[in-house]
Design brief:
This protein has 200 residues and is α+β, with helices and mostly antiparallel strands. It has helices at 13-21, 68-78, 93-115, 121-127, 130-140, 154-159, 161-166, 172-182, 185-197; strands spanning 2-6, 28-32, 57-60, 63-66. Bound molecules: glutathione. Glutathione binds at residues 10-11, 35-36, 53-56, 67-68, 108.
Length: 200
Amino acid sequence: MITLFHSPRSRSTRIVALLKELDALETVGIAVVTIPRMDGSGGRDPRNPHPDGKVPLLDHDGTLVWESSAIIQYLADLFPQAGLGIPVGDPQRGPYLSWLAWYAGIVEPVLTLKAIGVDHPAVARTFRTEAEIQARLAGALKDKPYLLSDRFTATDLLLHSPYAWFGKPGVPAIDAWVDRCTDRPGARFAAEFDAQHAAD
Ligand SMILES: N[C@@H](CCC(=O)N[C@@H](CS)C(=O)NCC(=O)O)C(=O)O
């Protein structure tokens, strides 16, 4: 049995979108749980087995997978027929894994610290800056509609997600890519799912 622990309008929303893109909603159940929210609402949910009480979390027959980038890679590998992952042996596998890891190691800390107003030279020195992140993304999108090729992959689903949340950055190549990624069955399904479950 596979279960996604999800809280509406959170980082797990992108995993709900992924399940739709993978055509995996029949196989993977979604357990809606609460989390403590920045505004003081919500709270840790005892039904959520995540060691930190966070979402997303995937439980596959009792084995836990945590961190969005790992969950996305795990599910894309589990449902290869959807073509959202890049298989071992494909020359694009390296860039594919690198974009997913770069999100977790660089993009999320930089954008989160920026959003909460932390500005320190050591942060820029260690992780680089939001401007450098945008330059990397815009560079990759200069000559193609998605990060790896003409095809939407799990990298696009993960990497565009902060801009779907915080808003587009005003960089034409990135803004157009975010529009392409949000105008997809997965993103539309996840938005509807969250609207229905937000009050739960
Ligand atoms: N890097 C993690 C971040 C997970 C995370 O912080 N999730 C938030 C929701 S957006 C959460 O569960 N917060 C509740 C808490 O911190 O207790 C991932 O992408 O999976």
